[in-house]
Specification:
Layout (H helix, E strand, L loop, with lengths): L19 H11 L5 E2 L14 H10 L13 H13 L10 E4 L1 H13 L5 E6 L3 H9 L3 E8 L5 E2 L1 H6 L5 E7 L11 H14 L2 E5 L23 E7 L12 E7 L5 H13 L5 H12 L4 H5 L4 H14 L4 E2 L8 E2 L2 E2 L9 H12 L1 E2 L1 E2 L11 E4 L4 H25 L1
Parallel strand pairs: 1-13, 3-4, 3-6, 6-7, 7-8
Antiparallel strand pairs: 2-9, 4-5, 8-9, 10-12, 11-15, 14-15
Helix pairs in contact: 2-9, 3-9, 4-5, 4-8, 11-13
């Protein structure tokens, strides 16, 4: 019998947030084990509900949601997104420059599919949200990872970016606020990235899905607001700021210098038409979300649940011997470092397996985010304080056992 194998295009594609370790966790759950999941930013399962006004709008409009919409999305939500870009000081955005998708994820893949030919390179941060690397590879391109420097608060290393540009480089991906590190980029750094893009005629893909999930009074600047002579594709959506992951309502905004990109934009339009349209119920949530009360502020400001859990998780993790962590300024994640002298990990996926097997805690290993060494892992701080304390306590117990085993081996 001839074996049916997956496409060779998938050879370099991985998404370990929902990868092999999660499959093992599912097997354990079927066997009756309770797993504490710190692997994914799925807010609803931790009791972070979508705002009531969004839910009510979708219910009220569901009877009108059975038909296809315009391939780029309905007028009213795109108009609301256009107004949002004006709030973010992104100039020159018209309704036709806005694409609504089934989450930002669909649009990330669409943006890369329309752009890349075999051999084309895209600069992607390390660590990254792994869909970006996967989308580049799946589209026939080559992801080239530039380093974000932990010593400088996980900010991109401009010199490393410059060194990795070649004649094949077509674009640079900027994830700000950052997943998995929680870093928030200052304006001065964004301006440097814009200047690099300007000099080398690169497209800037800006992933800003966490632009309202900010702590300690921080503010977010859209990189597309800093220039009109560079082409920007800015991606955002309702999943995180509005706790609406399952509604799959995201958008992509094309701005800046669009004149040289006429053919590329035709490609985006073609792909948007081929998938017919984004889901209609999710589109009905966008206008109300962007124009209504911004309840995310209740969660991230002093006294808010997300802020409290961030502070708790950071303290508990950094109290563990040999664990350090840059405190996130944004998003829902921490990316702690394990001192290699205390934790000489050769295979961090196996490390995640062992933690799951011994302590029933599910994390994602750092190399799953295309980090360069097996010395980091990502956790979400979404579980309530009691579960978070329990989970990190289990991680601490596992690491204590790991240290003792290594000391004996040494």
């Amino acid at each position: 019998m001839r074996l049916i194998q997956k496409s060779r295009k998938l050879a370099d594609v991985c998404y370990d947030i929902r990868g092999p370790v999660l499959e093992k966790a599912r097997q354990m759950e079927e066997e009756g084990h309770r797993i504490i999941k710190l692997n994914i930013g799925n807010l609803a399962v931790f009791g972070f509900d979508a705002p009531d006004e969004i839910v009510q709008d979708m219910i009220l409009n569901i009877s009108n949601a059975a038909g296809y919409t315009d391939s780029k999305g309905m007028f009213a939500p795109r108009k609301a997104i256009m107004h949002y870009t004006q709030e973010k000081k992104i100039e020159g955005v018209a309704i036709d420059d806005i694409y609504i998708g089934n989450g930002a994820s669909e649009l990330i893949v669409m943006g890369m599919n329309a752009l890349l030919n075999s051999g084309d390179e895209v600069l992607v941060p390390a660590p990254d949200y792994p869909l970006w690397t996967a989308a580049v590879s799946l589209s026939g391109g080559t992801p080239v990872h530039y380093i974000c420097d932990e010593e400088s608060g996980w900010l991109p290393d401009i010199n490393d970016i410059k060194k990795k540009i070649t004649s094949n480089t077509k674009a640079i991906v900027v994830i700000n606020p950052n997943n998995p590190t929680g870093a928030l980029y200052p304006v001065e750094l964004l301006q440097q990235i814009v200047e690099v893009a300007r000099q080398h005629q690169l497209i800037v893909f800006a992933d800003e899905i966490y632009d309202k999930t900010l702590y300690d009074g921080e503010t977010h600047t859209s990189i597309a607001s800093l220039a009109d002579d560079v082409l920007f594709l800015t991606l955002n959506g309702l999943s995180k700021n509005y706790r609406s992951c399952g509604y799959r309502a995201g958008w992509m905004v094309v701005s800046g210098d669009k004149k040289p990109a006429k053919d590329y934009i035709e490609g985006l339009n073609m792909l948007a038409s081929m998938r017919l349209c984004a889901n209609t119920p999710g589109q009905y949530a966008i206008q109300t979300a962007l124009g209504g009360y911004q309840s995310i502020n209740d969660l991230v400001n002093p006294g808010g649940r997300l802020l409290k859990q961030r502070d708790l998780a950071h303290k508990l993790l950094t109290d563990i011997p040999g664990v350090s962590c840059v405190k996130p300024k944004s998003a829902l994640y921490m990316f702690p470092r394990l001192d290699p002298k205390m934790y000489p990990i050769a295979d961090d996926q196996q490390f995640a397996y062992d933690l799951l097997a011994e302590e029933k805690v599910l994390i994602v290993q750092g190399t799953g985010f295309n980090w360069i060494a097996p010395d980091h892992f990502r956790v979400v701080f979404l579980p309530n304080s009691d579960d978070l304390t329990d989970a990190i306590g289990r991680i601490g117990r596992f690491l204590e056992s790991y240290r003792k085993r290594h000391a004996i081996a040494a």
